[in-house]
Design goal:
This protein is α/β, with parallel strands linked by helices. The protein has a single domain, classed as Vaccinia Virus protein VP39 (Rossmann fold). It has five helices and six strands. A six-stranded mixed β-sheet has the order 2-1-3-4-6-5. Helix 3 packs across helix 5.
Amino acid sequence: MTTTTATPEDRPVGLESRKSFADKWRAGFWARYVTGPAILDIGFRGFLGDDQPEAMPILDGAIGIDLDYPGYDGRTLPFPDNSQDAVYSSHCLEHIADYIGAIQDWYRVLKPGGHMIIVVPHAHLYERARQPPSAWNPDHKRFYTPASLLAEIEQALAPNSYRVRHLADNDTSYDYTLPKNQHPTGCLEIELVIQKRDRPEWVVS
């Protein structure tokens, strides 16, 4: 199991991941879904203000992937098939135009049994609207609900090539009293974990 030398409260992961990193640590989320040393954290820096420390990948030993990573073009990862124990991406997928290609490539590099952990803003909590454009981030290309996120996974991946292991709204410390014209605070996201599996010989008809 991957371990971290910093305490959960001290680890300067990306700003959105940081909001619930310690809670997930205490709940055993990382121990449950990151079960090997080969980890990719895609889009790990996110937005960092000038007063924020440089972001670290989600766990010790994880490789942080951003557009400046050698050989990465924003879609295709420079890693072999079936080479990673976990792929983690927080508040990144909504920025990628070719979401099907990205999901397929994240899946490609996963080992059978490995987990893909995807976190995206919740349209009803962050955007507080149904369709783009976003009032808060004009680079958001799609708005997500749990159903639409699962629909993208079903578009991208073959039936029985994965199993859904976790799907949850994370609204920890979310302030529901703020008006729509004020930027929301707290956690405002959807968490999805799928596990890669070898497909059976039969197919869904």
